[in-house]
Amino acid sequence: MWETALVLYLLSALAQADESAVAISPRNCSLECIRQGRPACDYCRVTGDDLKEALGFNPKFGSCIPWPCLELLGDDPKICQHYVQAPDDVKIEFVLEPNPESDTIIVSWKPSYYGIAFLRGFQVTLQALGGSRVACQLFLFHRNISLPASHAQMVYKSDPFPSLSLGTQYAVTVMALPVPEEWEKFYHSKIFSTRTCAEKNGFEQCKQDWYPTYVEVQQEGTAITVTFNLAPPNLGIRSYFSLCYANGIKSYTDITPNSSKNKTHHSYQLSGLQEGTNYTCVIAANEVDAVRKTFNVHVKSIQKENSSATPSLAVVLPVSLVLVVILGLLLAALICWRPKLQKKILGLKPDFIWQHEQGVTQEEMVSLPGQKLTPPRLLICYSNHDGPSHVKSVMQLGAFIQQHMATQVCLDLWDSLSVAEEGYMAWHCRQIQESNFVLVICSPGLKQRPETPDPEGEDEEVLNLRSNAYSSEAVIQLIGEEVGRAKARGQDLSKYMSAIFEYSEETDIPTELRLVSHYTLMRDLPLLFSHLHGVALHRPGCYLKINHITEEGFVKVPAGAALQWAIHEVGLTMKAKMQHTAEGGD
């Protein structure tokens, strides 16, 4: 008898394990089917056309609306009044995408068992960090469903999100429905990166990721020849460049191979290099953000022989050389003897001084302080009165800091859902309290005060833009008051910072923010990194060097190149505006 019971128990356990392992994908079904509670409509996708038909208007972001429960499942308030906690175990899965220039993902998750009996569906939102594009998907259960706690082990999937840019960071948010009265712990956000071109398609199929793997340097007399392997023909790379630098001097070479002679390798000559000097050189395809191959060149000294020297010169030259050597030895002895005498008088050890002098230019790899278990949280505030190009530069700065400066960035453009929930000012007040640092991007627009919005005669979108501009000014004034209050109390002001881009002036910094540290970007990028992480840029005998965190090095990564281009575009826009103003004044 007990053997039969044991077998039945094992079969039941296996059945439950199989059930929990099955992933549930959305189905095509109508809103009418969902409202009637038919068994076939257990987990359904809701399209933008369904919402337009049910609600009578087009949602702003396709299928993305934050409160679809009552409007879509009926007028019974009991259906939508219970709290449901955020989903768990959100995962990103890459699926087959035939386009080599983009990626496609599917999001999966498990529902929380807190309030699962009242769960009515999910909403999945996808947004690129540093961009404004938003994609949303809405999934609903039929109105008669009541899930047991065991279904918290079930895996639910979204529809594919196609055409995602390669090598880009995205934020995905999975929200449980219905949305509760108190906006807390009802959604789960996750930041991920799409694959790079090399990861998806292979190294030999990507322009930006390709670089010469074979580099050979040969010197014959004064001629220095460099040979390297060419890119595959399918990449369409027609030109290359080489850059050598030493002692602060750079030598640039344009390279245009003739593919008719050799399709696999090409040789070129370096010119303008000094004898007896070690050069560090890079070679890369002449493409934006191309990876560079580094190699070293040692230019040997060439001794020139003069066979046509006259006998008198042959006699005079050795004598002159002997005199020069003797004078040089006397001078060297005098130079060496005098510092040693001074060191002896001062009681210093010569070997200790020598070690210090040898280590002055050494680079040191310094790790961030070990006690920081989480990255610092940085809130970026700005004025959107300078137009969309300035806002774009702020977004690109936030994306660069998040990706390459080990910092968690808070930006209202990336958290539009929470801003809509709490309100513009309430969201910023909370972020100011919760963030470790607050950075205000100052611009000419801070001097202007937007007009009070007039609800008559303007459409809703214009009203929203003006309202946001007014609110952004109020937030910056609020930060100025916090700085003044902290200064009056003698408190630490290191939490607050101000910065300007190269197209702005220091006069754009408000008076109340001149009490805090201010930086000019991207010139002071290492100083900003030092401020955020509390690390010293210089130490006795060494200095801190961080990849991509320099005025020249930040453009070597895609996020830095995009930031540089955004800053350049704002500069052009402001220059054109100034010229237009000057012409109008004339």
Q: How would you concisely characterize the structure shown here?
A:
With 586 residues, the protein is of the alpha/beta class. It contains 13 helices and 26 strands.
Describe the structure.
- The protein has 586 residues and is α/β, with parallel strands linked by helices.
- The protein has 13 helices and 26 strands.
- Strands 2-3-7-6-10-11 form a six-stranded mixed beta sheet.
- Helix 2 links the parallel strand 2 (27-28) and strand 3.
- Helix 8 packs antiparallel against helix 13 (558-585), helix 9 (416-422) packs across helix 10 (424-434) and helix 10 (424-434) packs parallel to helix 11 (460-488).
- The N and C termini lie far apart (104 Å).
- The relative contact order is 0.07.
- Residues 5-11, 13-20, 305-310, 342-371 and 457-467 have low confidence and may be disordered.
Oligomer: single chain
Q: CATH architecture of the largest domain, please?
A: 3-Layer(aba) Sandwich
The amount of helix comes to 25-40%
Number of domains in the coordinates? Answer: 4
Tally of helical segments: 13
Task: Give the strand order, joined by hyphens, for the main sheet.
Answer: 2-3-7-6-10-11
Which secondary-structure class do the elements indicate? alpha/beta
Uncertain segments of ≥5 residues (pLDDT<50)? 5-11, 13-20, 305-310, 342-371, 457-467
Average of pLDDT: 77
End-to-end Cα distance, whole Å, is: 104 Å
Percent strand: 15-25%
